[in-house]
Amino acid sequence: MKRFLKVIASGIGFSSLGLLGALFSLLGLPILHLLPGGPDKLHRRTRWFVFRYFKALAGFLEWAGIFDLRTQALPPRKELDGVLILATHPGYLDVVILLSLIDQLTCVVKADIWNNPLFGWVVKAAGYIPALDPTMVIEEGAKALARGETILLFPEGTRTLPGEPYAFHRGAAHLALQSRAPILPILVACEPPLLAKGHRWYEMPRDPCDYSFRAIAPLDLPWPGLSDLPPSQAARKVTAWLEDRFNQEIHAAGHLAARHEAVHRQDP
Fold it and tell me: Which pathway is this protein engaged in (predicted)?
């Protein structure tokens, strides 16, 4: 029975995402476009609505018993201007919760979302960065960080299997090198896994998941001579360094060995 009720709550959450996304695109965005202030004001207003919606969605899912949310050491919002947030990505809801925790967050969105007839208008109005071309992501990301925006990036590129060591794409390293922005690592963990890679929206564990978002000490690039190296070589060095730092943190916390995929136990 517990799992059945959670499946209903999950269905309501996913349905609201589509329904409210459509309503906001058709009714909300035209009004925001008419307000004064130009593109920058439009981006900020749209991000505020995104923040409020995902805050409500995350609160509903937690109320429904799907997860218990824990945050640790997340800095105050005013300290995140111009910061590159690199977060691990064990489940589908990671971005939902991060968007509910941090207002005015700039995301890098996949091409299928950017071109989606339902959500494309929203992410464009929010000033998000489309992952259409790696060079453009790096250039636009560096400009956004220089303007004081806070960028969220999942350096793994996609949801990863529980228990696997972290392996990052080089895009995060290239952006860090070009922007020289402070890096805030956020370790996301969910036990048991929830909506992990390969799971469907209706696959719910019986008991509430422990969903934690833990920020660790901000990082600065460690080698002043990196700019003298060819970009590909510098990015390899930074990627390996980031992987090592993240894996050290998660291993020290004891999560690496504890994570597992035995999620969907049957109700007795």
Answer: Lipid metabolism
CA-CA distance, 68 to 61, in Å (whole number)?
9
263 pLDDT higher than 80: no
Structural domains of the chain in order of their starting residue, each with its CATH number: 2-258 (3.40.1130)
pLDDT at 264 over 60: no
- 105, with CB counted inside 10 A (0-12, 13-18, 19+), is buried
Report helix angle 38-63 to 2-23, nearest 10. Answer: 160
pLDDT digits (tens, 9 = 90+) for 79-99: 999 999 999 999 989 999 999
> pLDDT per residue over 229-255, tens digit each?
888 999 999 999 999 989 888 766 654
DSSP string for the chain: -HHHHHHHHHHHHHHHHHHHHHHIIIIIHHHHHHSSSHHHHHHHHHHHHHHHHHHHHHHHHHHTTSEEEEEESPPPGGG-TT-EEEE---STTHHHHHHHHSTTEEEEE-HHHHT-TTTHHHHHHTT-EETT-HHHHHHHHHHHHHTT-EEEE-TTSS---TTPPP---SHHHHHHHHH---EEEEEEEEES--S-TT--TT---SSPEEEEEEE---B--S-GGGGGS-HHHHHHHHHHHHHHHHHHHHHHTTHHHH------PPP-
* Rounded distance between C-alpha atoms, residue 208 and residue 192, angstroms: 8
